[in-house]
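Check my protein:
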Amino acid sequence: MTGRFQGIISPSVTPFDDNEDLDRAALAAEVEYLVAAGIHGIAVGGWTGEGAGLGLSELYEACRTAVETARGRGPVYGSAILNTTRQAVRFARAAKEAGVDGLRVAPPHYPWVPEVDGLVEYYTRIAAAAGLPVIVCNVIPWAPITVEAGEEIIAAVPLVRGVEQGGDLHRLADLLCRLGDRVTVLSALDDLLYPSFVLGAHGAVAPIATVLPVLVVRLLEAVRAGRHAEAMEIHRRLLPVWRAIEGPNLPAKVKYALELQGRRVGRARSPIPPPSGA
């Protein structure tokens, strides 16, 4: 194994002030909270962090703030959620300049996924431009990368060191069976982290780990130690929380869940509305 992208990686929210501008102080406080909670890595500018709506300079500032706050106590990963290679290369370079340890890169997803040759070129050029380890962020329901396509990407791009797999447990099982001894495989199945770890997932990138980081770290540790009664008890505590925040407007609901804990991160950017009382 590469030793990278291991364990529980928290996809951080991106705090905004009342003008919807990046709130660096609030982001620094959130990174400090996650580090103290024992998280094994922090991802900036992903789906939970409203990354598809961040400008280039905002991604740089968010990554730089996280790196400066973490101070080497855990890896920080930048994210690219874009639809052209040209855009993705620019964002990858900005994240590298900010000092991140690696990149989470989603495939192009509008209006469709490129064919395998296009995906190989996409990840090849991003990795070459940044010179950093890359994890394929395979979580877009309408733009999934098949296991076969993933194999071709990994074979062609040595800097692709792992896959973050969403969708369903069947895909994760196939991925672990085919590629789990070659690259890091992380679960993005927030409601199925327990069975994901039992199947052998090397960790997770999951919004529930941003909301309740201590419990998710404990869940992984319990499974690795064979303490399955404890793991099941933690799963049962996590599941209703995830059911409350999953689905449409997830960034707003994650932020609200943090606010309920006294973690001041502001509201999501318009047009994502604040969650209802229910």
The chain is about 45% helix and 15% strand. Residues 228-245 form the longest helix (18 residues). Strands lie at 7-11, 41-43, 76-80, 102-105, 134-138, 160-165, 184-187, 203-205.
